[in-house]
What does this fold into?
Amino acid sequence: MIGREQEIRELNERYDSNRPEFIAVYGRRRVGKTYLVDETLKERITFRHSGLSPVDEQNHKNGLKEQLKHFYLSLQLHGMKRSRCPSSWLDAFFMLEMHLKSIDDGSRQVIFLDELPWMDTPRSGFVTALEAFWNGWASHRDNMMLVVCGSATSWMTDKLINNYGGLYGRLTCQIKLSPFTLNECELFLQSRGVMMSRYDIVQGYMALGGIPYYLGYIKSELSLAQNIDRLFFTDGAVLRHEYDRLFASVFSNPEQMKRIVQFLGTRHAGFTRREILDKTGMEDCGSSTKLLKILENSDFITSYIPFGKSRRETHYKLTDPFCLFHMKFVQGRTETDPDFWMHNVTSQSVSAWRGLAFEEVCFAHIRQIKQALGILGVSSTQSALVVKGDGKNDGMQIDLLISRMDNVVNLCEMKFSSSEFEVKNEDDRKLRERIQRVMEQISRRHSIQVTLVTTFGLKYGIHSGIFQQVVTLDKLFQD
It folds into this structure.
């Protein structure tokens, strides 16, 4: 398995703990939760079951009856004698208890319930039955290990992690699985025989993010451009409709979530909560804050406090690479050019997209940037500076400022380039203006270090001395 060392270690330690364990694994859909559990606990799983998708391919709803029948079939598959289909979830979990008791030899029993939120159909009583199973029986057996997974992050956080009912405080471990880093993407592709340059890997990351499921579709015999065409633009492209499927499978209110995401995708710097409410028509209540938190916990959006601002000015921005790519190039397309990416790979629109997308890649690798700068051990915070224009000055945005406890602020410029980056007159002028703006925002005891994060380094020239540090693409691939 590529990466996931900490998560693997956590699961194995819980397996060896000799006490009852209740573990929740959650994260964005397609990020590899099921694979993690299956591979780590391979051949040690006593009972395994996965909930049915709420709606099947024929648009038929899988309600309580279908979920219970499917659970009963899983019991039979794992050796339970044929009897009768359970009539409720209380009945179903009781049958599971009886089966586990009948095969208990004193060794660790691992119960893996995948896609747990899908089992909780309306008025099914599923959560109550799960509480009864764990509180009344499983938690009293030292050899019991219950592992549950779910992509519906809102359900996992509300019903399990932040549960204030019968499951309050019952989890013994929670694991949030995040997308791959660039380093893990490279290792994953190499493990599948895909030999791709880091310049291309980072562009693939801009379109697919660090999602193993999407990366698994990349073919070794095709170029990156050919792979993107095959995944998004040819007839029957496997990811053409993934955006809609993604929201429909994770959220109970997919259209509302998509409306928020669509709006956030219209401005690179993001918006305040007040701006989001005004533009989307959402009500100003606790539920709107909850929706934003759900999207953030699902790794679709990121919140940040602009440099020098208070928490009241918190901005929310869309940072999921897959969603950003889909909205830019796939959504609403009426033309059917199967070689769209090959034909536009050098176009101005794609070049502009790369510049913004590279900034998001850098945001996802703040740790690697700090490591390259030698400041991992220094307490620091990162944010963006957003200055609105007025009658005298234009608006301005600095995408990354690292404010350090050693009284230094790193002003970071992110530049995606096919060769060494050359600082031209206009770049120099803008940088000096930004330095001046930042100096107006910080105390006199702070100093500014201008940092370039780019692909292949800095070309020596008349203006190159404005940068004190340079972080190259290879540094972003550090473990």
Summary: The chain has a mean pLDDT of 92. The radius of gyration is 25 Å.
